[in-house]
Design a protein that fits this description.
By secondary structure, the protein is α/β, with parallel strands linked by helices. Helices cover about 40% and strands about 10% of the residues. The chain is globular, with a radius of gyration of 24 Å. It binds oxaloacetate ion (OAA) and magnesium ion.
């Protein structure tokens, strides 16, 4: 096989396999070097490094104590390590043991980020093998606290920072990133980090966390992932006053200045990486998120995780909840608290799916869905003063100012919280839901845990154990009246890794609603009878790589059907193909 020379930072050279090997009946394999076959693990690439010292400090190649005697001789490592040779499994066991000694989640977070910086494969092996335990550390909720304290805990940059200072030079900045074949970018401007508000440049923890999940949960190769934070300032005065703040010390640029920087960024991304690179918008504020998605949705491969990813995971949860509740989507009535990205995004996807099922126009199916924002129920008399994304939901109704009154007036079967404000599903609200629903479906989706509209325990207690409950952030199982209830985690982490993998392996060039529905259907299809018997509406995260492969396959199939896939010919068995493309973190043998 061909080899290519790659310059390592510090002037060392590594011989690497050409990542564009051809596999699977002539289909160009986007993952090349990272296919998970046994063959690959025992007859791996050729690597020759001028200095063993630099090999030990390169997180992509470092294996620490797992370097074998032969490798220590061949790659100038002898003496640079203690004599013992340790297996990856034993290294993993040791790390897990050490992590469990920390009482504070943020300490676990920094320990895991240090590991990623030191030994990437061990980091991913640990994360994949212990996903349920470590997801709340690397991701929501701990990542939220990490962003709040990012300036203080900052050690090394983990992604690309593009600030107003880089205006006119964004293409050059992209070229400074050491990897060239980027397939997925997650970008934030930090203005609405989870439900925590404007964290400015410190929002970087979010793209880093999301992309760690792209690799661990979706099998996208780490070197193909690029976290980016766009810094246009922050309106968070506490951060501006904090001496350790890492971002621009100015208030947010808006209007043309903002739009121009974003436009330069989007153009530079396409110019540098081509049209098949996926750009995932993450945690932008409402007033930019919808506009960016609309503006670039027709020219770039873009996806908004908060509008679309959250919608897909919630729709999947609703479809599987129907197995417990009975009826069709059209038989249910939905009430949202929160009419921003997540609220209106979910509402629109539900209305679309209802319309597909009943053939009624979407203008009709929307009428089963009601939204409450900070000023009360969204009704037609408020139309003039509403932001454009709220207008489709302004139905005929007398004004209602509180959530409790809205619940009493609308009598929803499903209550969905996307408000970003913790504790807003009060006892009265939840009890009202339980009054006219045998099994009230309650989704408290705001993140992190502190912003959840109610806790799992509250939902089960206030409904005498009758609620079907899921939340954005994880909650432990709750015992009520001798029965254990397992809350679902309705988080877009179920979706974006598989959806992104599907886009990448099919070479898709656009995201369309039909692909979102395909992703949702695939997730709902992964909930087993055993899960339903336990009252679960989502499968456990332990199976997430298999789930992601099914989501990827369904999304890719839809991309081919719509003529949006460029990777030809279409592989016959897309699930198998998706699985075969997934990155595995096991060490390779270096010859
Ligand atoms: O990051 C998460 O856990 C889910 C999400 O996108 C958000 O809350 O903004
Ligand atoms: Mg988000």
């Amino acid at each position: 096989m061909d080899s290519t020379m790659k310059e390592l930072r510090g002037g060392k050279t590594v011989l690497d396999l050409d990542p564009k090997s051809t596999v699977g009946g002539g289909v160009e394999d986007p993952y090349g070097e990272d296919r998970a076959t046994e063959d690959q693990l025992v007859t791996p690439w050729t690597i020759s490094v001028a200095s063993g010292y630099s090999l030990l400090r390169d997180p992509h190649h470092n294996k620490g104590l797992a370097f074998t005697e032969k490798e220590r001789d061949a790659h100038y490592i002898r003496g640079l390590l203690p004599p013992v040779v340790m297996s990856q499994e034993l290294q993993e066991k040791k790390l897990l043991h050490n992590l469990r000694q920390y009482q504070v989640p943020l300490q676990k977070y920094t320990a895991l980020m240090d590991l990623a910086e030191r030994n990437e494969r061990l980091f991913y092996k640990l994360l994949i093998d212990n996903v349920e335990e470590l997801l709340p550390i690397v991701y929501t909720p701990t990542v939220g606290e990490a962003c709040q304290k990012y300036g203080s805990i900052f050690q090394r940059p983990q992604g690309l920072y593009i600030s107003l200072k880089e205006k006119g030079k964004i293409l050059e900045v992209l070229k400074n990133w050491p990897e060239r074949s980027i397939q997925v970018i997650v970008v934030t401007d930090g203005e609405r980090i989870l439900g925590l508000g404007d964290l400015g440049c410190q929002g970087m923890g979010i793209p880093v966390g999301k992309l760690a999940l792209y690799t661990a949960l979706g099998g996208v190769r780490p070197s193909s992932c690029l976290p980016i934070t766009i810094d246009v300032g922050t309106n968070n005065q506490q951060l501006l006053d904090n001496e350790f703040y890492i971002g621009l010390r100015q208030r947010r640029a808006t209007g043309k200045e903002y739009a121009d920087l974003l436009h330069e960024f989007m153009c530079a991304v396409k110019q540098n990486y081509g049209e098949k690179v996926l750009v995932q918008f993450e945690d932008f504020a409402n007033h930019n998120a919808f506009d960016l998605l609309a503006k670039y949705g027709t020219t770039h491969l873009v996806f908004n995780d908060d509008i679309q990813g959250t919608a897909v995971v919630v729709l999947a949860g609703l479809v599987s909840a129907l197995k417990l509740l009975g009826g069709t989507l059209g038989d249910h009535k939905f009430l949202f608290l929160g009419a921003g990205e997540a609220g209106t995004g979910i509402a629109e996807l539900i209305a679309l799916e209802m319309s597909n099922q009943t053939k009624a126009p979407v203008e009709e199916t929307r009428k089963n869905i009601w939204l409450v924002d900070s000023k009360g129920l969204i009704v037609s008399s408020r139309k003039d003063s509403l932001q454009h994304f709220k207008k489709p939901w302004a139905h005929e109704h007398a004004p209602v100012t509180t959530l409790l009154d809205a619940v009493k007036a609308i009598k929803p079967t499903v209550l969905i919280g996307t408000s970003g404000v913790g504790g807003t599903f009060t006892k009265e609200v939840v009890e009202a839901m339980a009054e006219f629903n045998e099994k009230p479906l309650i989704l408290a989706l705001s993140n992190p845990t502190s912003q959840s509209e109610c806790t799992a325990e509250q939902a089960y207690t206030w409904t005498q154990g009758r609620a079907i409950f899921a939340s954005g952030s994880p909650f432990d199982p709750v015992e009520y009246n001798g029965k254990v209830h397992i809350p679902g985690q309705s988080n877009n982490a179920y979706i974006f890794p598989g959806l992104g993998l599907g886009l990448v392996i099919s070479g898709a060039i656009r995201v369309q609603d039909a692909m979102l529905l395909a992703a949702s259907e695939a997730l709902a299809g992964q909930v087993t009878k055993e899960n339903f018997d336990k009252g679960m509406i989502y499968p456990p995260f332990t199976n997430i790589r298999k789930i992601s492969a099914h989501i990827a396959a369904n999304v890719a199939a839809k991309a081919y059907e719509l003529g949006l896939a460029t990777r030809l010919p279409r592989p016959e068995n897309l699930v198998k193909y998706a699985e075969s493309c997934m990155y595995t973190p096991n060490y390779r043998t270096y010859r």
